[in-house]
Amino acid sequence: DTALVWFRRDLRLADLPTLHTVAEAGARALGLFVLDDRLLGAAGGPRRDFLFRSLSALDDQLGGRLLVVRGNPAELVPAVAEAVSAGEVHVSADFGPYGRERDAAVAEDIGLVATGSPYAVAPGRVTKGDGEPYRVFTPYFRQWIDHGWRAPIDTGAATVDWIEPDDVTVRRAVIPEPESEGVAAGESEALRRWTEFLENELDSYDDARNRPDLDATSRMSVYLKYGNIHPRTMLRDLSRRRGKGAEAYRRQLAWRDFYADILFQRPDSARGNYDRKFDAIRLDSGADADEVFAAWCEGRTGFPIVDAGMRQLRAEAWMHNRVRMIVASFLVKDLHLPWWRGARFFMNRLVDGDLANNQHGWQWTAGTGTDPSPYFRVFNPITQGEKFDPDGSYVRKWVPELRGIPGRAVHSLKALRPEGYPEPIVDHGLERQEALARYGEIKAL
Ligand code: FAD
Predict the structure, then answer these.
(1) What is the ipTM of this complex?
(2) DSSP result, 86-130
(3) Ligand 1 center from residue 331 Cα (angstroms)
(4) Is the minimum distance from the CB of 20 to ligand 1 under 6 angstroms?
(5) Which atom in ligand 1 lies closest to the alpha carbon of residue 231?
(6) Do 418 and 282 fall into the same domain?
(7) Is 68 exposed, middle or buried (0-12, 13-18, 19+ CB in 10 A)?
(8) Any atom of ligand 1 within 6 Å of the Cβ of 224
(9) Where is the Photolyase/cryptochrome alpha/beta domain (predicted)?
């Protein structure tokens, strides 16, 4: 018997529940990846490149035996199954809106056996006593801890007997070359970075994680996104460590599961407000809106921390979480633009772009989501900068025009603006009042 293992966003071999199932059945296996143009088109360059690198790493681990095809999974997956006489296809469950639709279409022609998911606790598992989903993080988190997860399982390349794809009569595709340099991908890179973080940064994570100047976070988001590592492996390692760092990190991993759960319960929240009452909020559009949006995208708003964040995004395809919140708040509350406009730009530019985390990170900031930051909380980009980048080094790193200004003065720019650096595109005090007025109209509804 040959088992077909269809990889999607689980590009690793260790702790891969799918492989465990296949190994237990004693089957020989064929590994398959489908380059799906709909997903590739939506991904943006950095994510596509990371995916291609991950695929090459996986193919190496399989001794060049990964079958890669390109096209519509609903046609190709059943065709490959038939070509190798596999009666069913093994996957890890995908809970995203597109993944669910795609899998339903594939399952019309061939049985899908889902073992495990990309989460410690899969969406739909943690519910209130009456079976209703949680809408607020803290009670979800308590229940998530109580629910628990199983220990990582020992799988790996040697667990199953991988067959050569050469004899399979389908048209093979090559893994495309990445277009640019970027983060190193694959399972061994994920483990290397994780070990490095555990050794050097975990202990100070709780204190330092809000400081973009210290670069003290794990940068594991992209490895989690593509399943180069499973969060259970990380949770096992964290459970062996004491202290506030491990606790704080575990909580962040729970946010990831929480947002996946919310998106699973409410797939429509990927495109619109989770809290529909905000559909009525007044938003700006037209030529002026396009102009300030362009300034935001390009990091020339004249607000140093905002510009630094947007330039980090352009340079690294990644941005520090605190700065993501600051630039998102600026787009929504200072520029009065729809959160989904910024979210779309992020999804296109971020290497770790993830629909659940991104759309709900944005909605948290906009105050339209579950568990939102209260609508009247408007981040002040100057004081946020002074607080979280206290000596200004993050700003100076990313905004060369400001390198001549020492210390925290770089945030307020009360002094003369250096040549080439723009005047602020808005008056924060006025726009704050405007945002409060617009949100106030909704509150009064
Ligand atoms: P660490 O601080 O080391 O966190 C460890 C892991 O916990 C992360 O890798 C991530 O998987 C998870 N995590 C941490 N914070 C959050 C959070 N707030 N929500 C959900 N999971 C979290 N994260 C993404 O993975 N993809 C996105 O597209 C994304 N878009 C965001 C957009 C906005 C507006 C905001 C405010 C946040 C967004 N986040 C997103 C969450 C967070 O910013 C990133 O997960 C984090 O910055 C990644 O860096 P890290 O791995 O070094 O984080």
Answers:
(1) 0.99
(2) -SEEEE----SHHHHHHHHHHTTTSEEEE---SSSS-TTSSB-TT
(3) 19
(4) no
(5) 11
(6) yes
(7) buried
(8) yes
(9) 1-120
Q: Whose CA is nearest to atom 33 of ligand 1?
A: 361
Dist. CA 24–CA 12, nearest whole Å: 18
CATH number of the domain that residue 84 is part of: 3.40.50.620
Whether 348 is covered by a domain: the verdict is yes
Nearest CA owner, ligand 1 atom 42 = 321
Residues 129 and 79 in one domain: no
Atom of ligand 1 nearest to the CA of 342: 34
Q: How far is the CA of 170 from the centre of ligand 1 (A)?
A: 39
**How far is the C-alpha of 84 from the C-alpha of 80, rounded, in Å?**
6
Range of the domain at 407: 276-443
**C-beta contacts of 63-66 below 8 A and 24+ residues apart:** 63/157, 63/162, 65/30, 65/31, 65/162, 65/163, 65/164, 65/165, 66/7, 66/31, 66/32, 66/33, 66/165
Residues 322 and 349 in one domain: yes
DSSP state of 279: G
Which atom of ligand 1 sits closest to the CA of residue 223? 9
Q: Ligand 1, atom 14: nearest CA belongs to which residue?
A: 252
Closest residue by CA, ligand 1 atom 52: 219
Q: Is residue 104 classed exposed, middle or buried when 0-12, 13-18 and 19+ CB atoms within 10 A define those classes?
A: exposed
Ligand 1 pocket, 256 CB below 6 A? yes
Task: Report yes or no on whether pTM surpasses 0.80.
Answer: yes
325 located within any domain = yes
Q: Are residues 209 and 301 in the same domain?
A: no
The stretches of 268-408 forming alpha helices (DSSP H) are 287-298, 304-316, 321-329, 339-349, 355-366, 381-388, 393-398
Residue 43 vs residues 66, 259, 310: alpha-carbon distances, Å: 22, 19, 19
Number of domains in the chain: 3
Q: Whose CA is nearest to atom 37 of ligand 1?
A: 361
Which of 333, 352, 362, 370 maximizes ligand 1 atoms within 8 Å of its Cβ, making it the mutation to test the pocket?
Answer: 352
- Ligand 1 neighbourhood includes 355 CB (under 6 angstroms): no
pLDDT block averages, 10 residues each, the chain of length 445? 94 93 88 96 96 98 96 97 94 97 98 96 95 94 96 82 88 95 96 98 97 96 98 97 96 98 97 95 97 98 98 98 98 98 98 98 93 81 97 97 94 83 96 96 78
For residues 350 and 230, state if they share a domain. Answer: no
Domain membership flag for residue 180: no
Locate the ligand 1 atom nearest the alpha carbon of residue 259 and give its number. 20
